[in-house]
Amino acid sequence: MKPIGQYWEQRAEHFLLQHGLQLIARNFSTESGEIDLVMRDVEHVAFVEVRYRSSARFGGAIHSITAAKQRKLKRCAAIFVSQQKVWSNHPCRFDVIAYDASNGNGEPVWIRAAFD
């Protein structure tokens, strides 16, 4: 992982921990792709995609999650749940933590259940 991506993922993890979520896994990788953070939020397993953009010139961080990216995340989540049976009976959701900051001091935008 690139250092800048790692920095923003650490910030997102810290933010989510402050909001009561618990870390299950970070950077869960499969052949289909990677899930940045897997967190527990009460009864849900939240698969979290962290996005950072220094400029909104091309639509910003939130808009950078394409339909193809969503499909990859869903495949990765299915693999995670199949490998980690303890989470198989928990409802799942896909969250996004987005940072748009040209100076590196951006506040996170947290979208719970960003897509199905």
Q: What's a concise summary of this model?
A:
By secondary structure, the protein is α+β, with helices and mostly antiparallel strands. 28% of the residues lie in helices and 38% in strands.
Biggest sheet character: 5 strands, mixed
Quaternary structure: single chain
What is the overall shape? globular
Q: Radius of gyration in whole Å, from Cα?
A: 14 Å
Distinct helical segment count? 2
DSSP summary, beta strand count:
5
**Which regions are unreliable across 5 or more consecutive residues at pLDDT < 50?**
none
- What is the N-to-C order of secondary-structure elements (H for helix, E for strand)? HEEEHEE
Q: How are the strands of the largest sheet arranged?
A: 1-2-3-4-5
Q: What fraction of the residues are assigned to beta strands by DSSP?
A: 35-45%
- CATH architecture, please? 3-Layer(aba) Sandwich
Number of domains: 1
Which fold name fills CATH's third level, the topology? Trna Endonuclease, Chain: A, domain 1
Average pLDDT taken over every residue: 89
* Share in helix: 25-40%
How far is the N terminus from the C terminus?
26 Å
> Under the CATH scheme, which class?
Alpha Beta
Structural class: alpha+beta
